[in-house]
Amino acid sequence: MIRRLFLTLFLFLFALSLLPATGLAAYKPEYKLSVVVAQNNPWGGAAQKFADLVRERTGGKINIKCYFAGQLFAGCRQTSFSSPARESAISPWAPRSTGPPR
Q: In what helix (H) or strand (E) does residue 32 lie, and over which residues does it extend?
């Protein structure tokens, strides 16, 4: 019982000691938002509207700069979402749906 109380107290104090460190994270006033579609696309317009609202509601403390049509990652090779079929993770003969047969 005493041992469990000391362990709980130790974990609480350890967690409490980490709190000030998380509040001292570096402030970043500008962020980049990469949007694959063009600015005149509805998604592009929504991204720009979001950036404008963030700037307005934070009083200009946080700015988001939108990069449309893949400008930010132009020339970079896509590595995170490669096709599972190309990597043979999915069989090309696998059924396309799990619904009842027609």
A: strand 30-34
